[in-house]
Specification:
The protein is built from 29 helices and 20 strands. The chain is of the alpha/beta class. The protein has 5 domains: about 180 residues, P-loop containing nucleotide triphosphate hydrolases (Rossmann fold, 3-Layer(aba) Sandwich), CATH 3.40.50.300; about 70 residues, Arc Repressor Mutant, subunit A, CATH 1.10.10; about 180 residues, Rossmann fold (3-Layer(aba) Sandwich), CATH 3.40.50.300; about 120 residues, PCRA, domain 4; about 50 residues, SH3 type barrels. Strand 6, helix 11 and strand 7 form a beta-alpha-beta unit. The longest helix is centred in the C-terminal third of the chain and has 23 residues. The protein is globular. The two termini are about 55 Å apart. It binds adenosine-5'-triphosphate and magnesium ion. Keywords: ATP-binding, DNA damage, DNA repair, DNA-binding, Helicase, Hydrolase, Isomerase, Nucleotide-binding. One of its GO terms (molecular function) is 3'-5' DNA helicase activity. Belongs to the helicase family. UvrD subfamily.
Amino acid sequence: MEYLNKLNKEQRAAAMYTEGPLLILAGAGSGKTSTMTHRIVYMTEEKGIDPYNILAVTFTNKAAKEMKDRVETLIGHGLNSWILTFHSACLRILRSHAEVLGYGRDFAVYDPTDQKTMIKNIIKELGIDAKRYTPSYFLGIISKCKEKPITAEEYTNVYGDDIKAKTVAQVYGMYERALKKNNAMDFDDLLLNTVRLFKKDETVLLKYQNRFRYIMVDEYQDTNRMQYMFIKMLAEAHNNICVVGDDDQCIYQWRGADIRNILEFEKDFKDVKVVKLEQNYRSTSNILGAAHSVISNNRSRKSKKLWTDQDAGNKIVYYRAEDERDEAYFIASEINRMKSSDRKYNDFAILYRTNSQSRTFEEALSRREIPYRVLGGLRYYDRKEIKDITCYLRLVQNKADDLALIRIINEPKRGIGGKTLEKLRTLAAVRQESIFNTLMDREVISSFSSKISSNIESFTELINSYSSEKENLRISDIYDGLLVKSGYLKALEEQNTLEAESRIENLMEFKSVIYNYEDEDPNITLPEFMERIALLAEVDNHDAGENAVVLMTMHSAKGLEFPFVFMPGMEDGLFPGWRAFDREDGLEEERRLCYVGITRAKERLWLTSAERRTLYGKTDYTRESQFLRELDKSLIEGDAIFEKKKRDVGQGVFSDGITEGSSFKPFDQLKYARQQMKKNLEDSSDDLSAGDMVSHPKFGEGKVLSCDGKIVQISFDGDVKKLAVGFAPLKKL
Ligand code: ATP
Ligand code: MG
């Protein structure tokens, strides 16, 4: 029970209240997440509750990992509770029961980039004016529909049947059919389908209700309708549900979060115990005061005030820069000034409103040689080469994945142009099979020139061999094989441009991603790996252990804390953003975001703005943010006077003549990695015969029993495996 002594009275009461519904409603930094963590420990260690019966849901993968790590550190051993995100929980459930809904269990998960590609194809097919209707327009509507849920068939009943609504319904319907045909789900489907599954098959629901006797949800204020349904259905049987949240931190309404879920929790469940936490342990009283002075301007909120027994601490620094470069240099030099031997770079975070702000900070920080990490923006996984190679992996996992195939069938060039591909797609549709299957038909292939048909044959052969061997191979070996044998790497090498080099660099970096997963779990399977990377939210790249300044959006910073926080771009139009004024409650949501940003800071906070700013290629004078004007001036260093009016100066374009610096590339290391990759493949020896001793990275040492052309039979400690020569990473001993 010693660990409970670290909690205060209210926190302890909440941690020990395990039966019946519990609502912990409290402000930022009051220890909500810590209480939840200790509650899991209390349940398993003191109450003897089987960890198997516990489900804890968090908002990001990173938060889930942190919570699991902390629980395991406190109890000193591993735990088989499900501590994960909504998406991961649903994905796990669907993997075991997808057939109930007519999917194969190895269904793919499509991310936003895949979704866009699909919609683009549909727009083309229907001949819709692509300038008037963008893919994001349709995807936004489809996502909202899936949150409600409204099906494509129901759409016109709900929204009327004018031409616009009919078009949306048609696109939505085709999109759904294409997903189904590819045996794929998008992110919204994961939740929607799990709820459908629970409704359709009561035994499945009962199974999970029985399993998850204790349910906890962190950041409950940001749950949407489907997440709510999911939790409600699971918890209904036993009512042991604990939700944790802060209505002041609801920042995802634009993505369907429903603040009512937390405000009406007491109505949804009977006899709810409510715990309020009022002491903040994170921030100095100046920081807390600043946060309070801003958020108290929101009208729709449950009034609450946090207190802290920490010192006032330093005042908040406000700096009005000339332009965004000056702003970035100011922040870089403040970091240099504050950085001392007992401070690491990752004690500093720059939290901005939009990803597009990051570039200037990257520039300023790298010039000062300050290490930094950008989270979000063009995600690593959104880069072309990474998308391409993951599509190869996806196809190996699931050959019905037409979308993946379309992306890579001509990458590298195999002579399949747009028209040919179109023909293939139609043919596959007529034959009601996947394009891959169509390509396996010799008759189809023979209609191509001999060069193209041989290209295609080696492509299908490549995918088939890795697909049939996938259980026997490490992911890193599959990866190497695909990259080299597909000719993808070679094609990049032949381009011999700087851009191609950086693409190769990224592809090599992907190997470290794979290695990391393999280190963590040497038996990780391809589907498991694909799931993990498909679910990587932007914030997950944040590695607190790394000694680098952290750059991210305020949205991604939810739940995190840093000693030193910078919030740049405190200008009307940027933060709060102009779009905030389009929507009812838009401004209040932006203000909550401001509250989230400020309360990330433990010791010191800097707010900055720029007098003129170039954004999306346009330079303009700015007005200081409304939130600055709302902030309690006595908490700000110096005499802050905020301009109420935008300066009456015409627009102009400013250039400062700074030339681009050349960036360092670890070229030789890269070359080495590439050579290794090819060498490993050559090592998978072709000339094996019965009696040879071999070693395999996954199965260990074994003895060759027979070798028949392409297939070799090997006994690994009596366990006989059939492996493909030239694909299995075998070393002759
Ligand atoms: P947020 O609303 O931002 O998610 P939270 O309410 O979840 O915040 P935590 O992240 O759990 O708050 O805790 C904030 C900080 O306070 C952490 O550094 C945590 O270790 C510390 N803390 C929590 N409770 C206590 C306590 N009783 N004594 C000392 N420190 C505490
Ligand atoms: Mg928290």
